[in-house]
Automatic annotation (TrEMBL):
Function: GTPase that associates with the 50S ribosomal subunit and may have a role during protein synthesis or ribosome biogenesis.
Membrane-traversing stretches: none
Gene: hflX
Molecular function GO terms recorded: GTP binding; GTPase activity; guanosine tetraphosphate binding; metal ion binding; ribosome binding
UniProt-annotated binding residues for GTP: 205-212, 230-234, 252-255, 318-321, 344-346
UniProt-recorded name of the protein: GTPase HflX
Highest taxon, organism lineage: Bacteria
Keywords linked to the UniProt accession: Cytoplasm, GTP-binding, Magnesium, Metal-binding, Nucleotide-binding
Domain Hflx-type G: 199-366
Subcellular location: Cytoplasm
Assembly and binders: Monomer. Associates with the 50S ribosomal subunit.
GO CC annotation, single: cytoplasm
Required cofactor names: Mg(2+)
């Protein structure tokens, strides 16, 4: 029911109100781009300033009249707010404007519904939509919303609403079960990659920063990429060769945006877990965007919400083709490690630098060397084999085992603790090895 869409765009009146929120304000230009991404046609933009939202209509009586005049003049079919409205505010506005009203959360959910392609993506979007819609059910039953007193006047309104809510709860419960199954399958895939010691790199960034274009350039894949918000919704995984490391799994993920609805973050938990458990995050940034610093902060807010802010991160300042005179380069920190790469995915500038930086950073998290084990240490050997960390093995004349090992440092450290072997057995104390 949520994926049947009209063939033509809908004419919409847009409403944007400025509040004294400091840096937390919404962007009107981004708002218009969101509407166009949803297939809408912005006909008018109503702006204003308030010290606080009106409890009843969010914008106050005067602005309601101004919006009503704009609807009549433009013959609009829809009013979209660049803010989150309460169910009662939506209901009051629809009653006053005699027109369908949509808030920012509903708009983003609608875009996600259009972009969903896989079964998992559609389930995630439907879950978010149902959770959002559950508080707005009464709007569709205004003629039955109250039971009247007296013989012959007792209506079935509350019964109908209760039925709808029960059906909604049942559907949400079913989707949760299906998504739990998807999450289990994803976890199995991640465990298999971990056993084969294949590092994963997840692309993150503000929507329309160029993540999918960069993904295609690095992997030679054909993931859909377009100059629009939320062009990518379903995650895509590809393997790319990195010199000195072998193959690395690159993950393209959904873009973030200011005030990304919490319901979406919850619904996409299985997808975003790829980011949470990645060995390295590539934070793709539109270097030509005037608001790039604010966009970077918004991405970090979402990463913090999904508990991925502590993951090792490499910034990729993309779209340098839009910056006159800017050349591809790697910026390094005080330890000489890469922390930012300037590149252009569109023109394939700086791609080798990105691969080089990925290799340097991931090698910091790997324990890769030949170790010698005694027969009494065979338990560690078994654990290394179970983890898929042994690349080659030979036996010496005295019965010792020489193992070529490649494994994540934290995994190796946990194994050593489990079998009671001190770290210094393989890593001298004076060597600063553990970089995590």
């Amino acid at each position: 029911m949520f994926f049947d869409r009209p063939d033509t765009g809908e004419g919409a009146v847009l409403v944007h109100i400025d509040f004294p929120e400091g840096d937390d304000k919404e962007d009107p230009a981004e708002f218009e781009e969101l509407v166009r991404s949803a297939g809408g046609a912005p006909l008018a933009l109503i702006t204003g300033t308030r010290s606080a939202p009106d409890a009843k209509t969010f914008i106050g009586r005067g602005k309601v009249e101004e919006v009503s005049d704009a609807i009549e003049f433009c013959e609009a079919e829809l009013v979209i707010f660049n803010h989150q409205l309460s169910p009662s505010q939506e209901r009051n506005l629809e009653h006053a404007l005699k027109c369908r009203v949509l808030d920012r959360t509903g708009l983003i959910l609608d875009i996600f519904a259009q972009r969903a392609r896989t079964h998992e993506g559609k389930l995630q979007v439907e879950l978010a939509q149902l959770q959002h819609q559950s508080t707005r059910l009464i709007r569709g039953w205004t003629h039955l919303e109250r039971q009247k007193g007296g013989i012959g006047l007792r209506g079935p309104g509350e019964t109908q609403l209760e039925t709808d809510r029960r059906l909604l709860r049942d559907r949400i419960k079913l989707i949760h079960k299906r998504l739990a199954k998807v999450q289990t399958q994803r976890e199995q895939g991640r465990r298999a990659r971990k056993r084969s010691s294949t590092p994963s790199v997840s692309l993150v960034g503000y929507t329309n920063a160029g993540k999918s274009t960069l993904f295609n350039a690095l992997t030679e894949a054909k993931v859909y990429a377009a100059d629009q918000l939320f062009a990518t919704l379903d995650p895509t995984l590809r393997r790319i060769p990195i010199q000195g490391l072998g193959e690395v799994v690159l993950v393209d993920t959904v873009g973030f945006i200011r005030h990304l609805p919490h319901k979406l973050v919850e619904a996409f938990k299985a997808t975003l877990q790829e980011t949470q458990e990645a060995d390295l995050l590539l934070h793709v940034i539109d270097s030509a965007d005037e608001d790039r610093q604010l966009n970077m902060e918004q991405v970090e807010i979402v990463l913090d919400e999904i508990e991925a802010l502590d993951r090792p991160t490499l910034q990729v300042f993309n779209k340098i083709d839009l910056l006159p005179g800017q050349k591809p380069r790697i910026d390094r920190d005080d330890q000489g490690l890469p922390w930012r790469v300037w590149a252009s995915a569109k023109d394939s500038q700086g791609l080798e630098l990105i691969r080089q930086a990925i290799g340097e950073l991931l090698s910091q998290t790997l324990f890769e060397q030949t170790i010698e084990l005694t027969p009494q240490e065979s338990q560690l050997r078994a654990l290394l084999y179970d983890h898929g960390a042994v690349l080659h093995e030979e036996f010496t004349e005295n019965g010792h085992m020489m193992l070529d090992v490649r494994i994540e440092q934290d995994d190796f450290q946990q194994m050593l603790a489990k079998v009671g072997i001190p770290l210094e057995r393989f890593i001298p104390q004076e060597k600063e090895f553990w970089q995590l």
